[in-house]
Amino acid sequence: MNPMDRTLERKRGPSAGVIALAAFGVVVLVLGYLVMMRSGETRLSVDPTRLTIARVETGEFRDYFPFDGVVEPVTTMYLDVEEGGRVEEILVEGGQHVEAGELILRFSNAAVQRNSIDTETALVENLNALRNTQISLAQSELLLRDQLLDLEHRIVDTQMTFDRYARLQDGGAVARQAFETVGEELGYLKTKRDLLVERIAREAELRDQQTAQADYSINRLNLSLELLNRMADRLDVRAPISGYLSNIDANLGENVNRGQRVGQIDVLGDYKISVGVDQYYIARVQVGTPGRFTLDGKAYEVVVDKIFTEVVNDSFVIDVAFSGEVPPNLRRGQRLTVELNFSETTEAVMVARGGFFQQTAGRWVYLVSEDGESARRTAIRLGRQNPRFVEVLEGLRPGDRIVTSSYDAFNEVDELVFTEPVQRARAEDTSNSVTRESHDHRNRKSAEALSN
Fold first, then answer.
1. Which residues of the chain does CATH 2.40.30.170 include?
2. How many CB atoms lie within 10 A of CB 138?
3. 179 vs 238, higher pLDDT
4. Rounded to whole angstroms, how far apart are CA atoms 274 and 336?
5. Between 24 and 214, residue with greater pLDDT
């Protein structure tokens, strides 16, 4: 063997046990990753003391919603100016009682006054013209009738002469020429009489037409004058009904346009409530829908009387009338909260409302586990709702606990893992209001039955 040559020792690798253990670990990691990827679940650790948790309960559900309303008189008469003008005098201030017909404001309007004077002048001129025409026609008629009377007399005389000449002509006592002349004169007078009679008839017809036209013109002028007088009268604003003048929106010397509202008169004693309702409820509100409001600790029953379906700023207006006792000392403009009932009170599974509804639209909730250590996302279906509770139709049972506070910070994870278990008493405290509302409703029903 060459001295330069030496034997190399063979290096030892990992033992078979180590290799098997490493392979098992890799398989476990891969399987765990695959399981997680397949399930797709996400979890979030949260502090339960920052959450609101409520218990699902069975109770009497009242389908209502509150709306803000304003007390208004049933009868209100608005004072709108019929003719514009300048405010000359204010005789009654706002807040005072007025009687029907009492003068409140006085306006002046130069144009109306000038038109009234012009119309009166034209009326007088037309009356004078008519009078002159009637006098002239009457004189003409008298003259023509005098002429007719004279002509009739001449005809009678001529007729007598003609008849006498006719008898004398046979004996030759009268010349034929004289006889013919009298005959022609008689014919001429009769023809002239016929023309005069026709003229009298024509002038009578013309007189009737002129009189009718003059009467028509005078009637029109009288109507115009009457209208102007009414316009002048409307410059004085009077109370159309008896009541309280709420306010006067006019100042001395101010020019007010035609149709402008300057005040209103309220008949106090009979009141209604004007309520603004969100357009979401437009299909649910009907005439006759009952409701109630509370004032000074006492509940009063009301009913929807009128519905004004025009939607303005996402809401419409209804008039609510009192269906029972009316509160004493109501005031116009007083604000009340009216709760409208959309269905009968029924037994239902329900849970307290919370911020969760804004994020999930009632499609799912976080259901707390029996041990109170977590809450899992669960699909549900909700029904009716009021400001305090929502009706549960599917997905939850009485006794279940859910997270009702806002879900904004959870990013819709599949499960909430609590840092400490949720105590069952917390959910029981939040659910006591269901029992209280059911008891309150039964107490109200009992009181109503006793009063009836």
1. 66-107+246-341
2. 11
3. 238
4. 10
5. 214
